Amino acid sequence: IWLLSVLLLVAFLVTSGISYKVAHDSLSQQIESNTLPLTSDNIYSEIQQDLLRPIFISSLMAQDTFVRDWTLSHEQEPEKLIRYLKEIQEKYDTVTSFFVSEKSRHYYHSTGILKQIQDVEPDDAWYFRVRSLPESEHYEVNIDADTADRSKTTVFVNYKVFDFEGKFIGVTGVGLAVEKVKSLIELYQKRYNRRVF
What we know:
Elements: H1 2-63, H2 65-72, H3 78-92, E1 96-101, E2 106-109, E3 112-116, H4 125-131, E4 139-145, E5 153-162, E6 168-177, H5 178-192
Antiparallel strand pairs: 1-2, 1-6, 2-3, 4-5, 5-6
């Protein structure tokens, strides 16, 4: 009886161990192949949706007839464009809004004319990178130091501006604070109970 009891106990333990191992492996496989990719897609979609708004704002700025007409009329009365950029920044709660003219290479900001873009200046490489994007790509999203405030890192949406005949005349866009993007990622971490990188 003792021998039979020991054999039954060992058989039960082995069967339980095998069942646990099979269930563990199956659950790990399920999480790895289904749950994690689905969560990843959801988080990616939410981040993309949050970035869609500044992309849309930049697109509207690039298509705005005021910006195009003002640029084509030799950038007279810069204060008009500066006021426009300030209104965009305040209305859409962005960290920055800007326009760089291809003709004058002036960097217009919501606070004034910050500087003149130069192709030898490493900090201005972003402008020439956006300018040389393929025809099918009209904008880029990048993270860089804010030209107006070097202590801040900003997520920029840089959008190409064309005149009414399709000729490149500059780059416009808005910037989001990295802290805002960071807080969004922290929100997703809490919502999905996952670590997001």
